[in-house]
Amino acid sequence: MNARTGSQLTALFACLALLVAGCAGATPGTPVPNGAEAAAYVSAKFSGTLDKLGDQLNGTDSKKSALDTFARFDTKKINSTVTAVQLGRPPARLSKNHSNLDSNEYLDSFHPANSPVEYMLLGPVYASLAPTHWVSMPYTAGDLNECFWAGSQDLCKMLGAVSDSVDQGHAKKATSKADGGLELTADVTLAAFLDNRVVVFPQSILDQISTEMKAQTLQARIVLDPAGKLTEIQLGGTIRGDGHEVELSEHYHLDGVPTENDLPKVPDPADVTVLPDSAAVSDFYARMGEIQGR
């Protein structure tokens, strides 16, 4: 995520919090008063920047989340679930990226709080990458915000796609919820979805997606609690053109309160292959990419 996207997402959280604050007294399930003006206000604010990232992106909140991803281009499919835990200050972080099409395809990333290294558990599909179940690598994200963590990357990419589309006037409405929270809906162009790499398609597929298809829109739904905290985002739809069909569905939501029991123990050193430097890490990910591209 670049600095531009960071400022966009900060603006997103700030503006949505302002909308929630302005919703007191609204009838649940109805558009908030002056809903069209509220959406226009959000659209305008998306083009601005703020001086710092909001608390929801700086890694201070303990949380559990789940992200379901389904992507289909004609007959080729991706179907996976990422479950994630962030606990404590400074946080320990765990993300489990598991395919729903092949139970042997998974990668679990674990960074114990304050550890100089992070660990990755390799599913059977990736067993050729190392002689042990785990690999370790230097932890280099200490000064980066939450959007660089695997458990939040796709969330931030989705919000970036919404941000880009709202900048283009695609905000639709804000609706109050029974609990005092807010639901915001927007149309998101396929171009924004692809540009923000919400799902990374190989170039062979991207070359078949026309400009006309990229102009079509997906539907986004963002849910906030009464305090303005993001609790859920859905983004998806079906795009058709030039004899092709793209079906996309992303669903992120909070999933309860994390505890220490949600985190694994630090793996036994005898079961860990050490990747000591950036060159070893780059080689590891290059070999992983070859497996994923097969």
3D structure, described in words:
By secondary structure, this protein is an alpha+beta fold. 27% of the residues lie in helices and 33% in strands. The protein contains 7 helices and 12 strands. It has a 12-stranded mixed β-sheet with strand order 7-8-9-10-11-1-2-3-4-5-6-12.
Which key terms come to mind for this protein?
294 residues, twelve-stranded mixed β-sheet, alpha+beta
**Subunit arrangement of the protein:** single chain
Low-confidence segments = 16-25, 43-55
In terms of structural class, how would the helical and strand content be classed?
alpha+beta
Q: Classify the helix fraction into a percent range.
A: 25-40%
In angstroms, what is the radius of gyration?
Answer: 20 Å
pLDDT averaged residue by residue: 83
User: Which descriptor suits the 3D outline?
Assistant: globular
Number of helices: 7
Helix-strand pattern: HHEEEEEEHEEHHHEEEEH
Largest sheet, in brief, is: 12 strands, mixed
How many β-strand stretches? Answer: 12
How would you write the strand order of the largest sheet? 7-8-9-10-11-1-2-3-4-5-6-12
Distance between the termini: 27 Å
Percentage of residues in DSSP E strands: 25-35%
Short description:
With 294 residues, this protein is of the alpha+beta class. It is 27% helix and 33% strand.
Topology:
Blueprint: H1 3-21, H2 35-46, E1 63-73, E2 76-87, E3 92-99, E4 106-111, E5 117-122, E6 134-138, H3 150-167, E7 171-176, E8 182-189, H4 190-195, H5 203-206, H6 211-215, E9 217-224, E10 230-241, E11 244-254, E12 272-274, H7 278-292
Parallel strand pairs: 6-12
Antiparallel strand pairs: 1-2, 1-11, 2-3, 3-4, 4-5, 5-6, 7-8, 8-9, 9-10, 10-11
Helix pairs in contact: 1-2, 1-3, 2-3
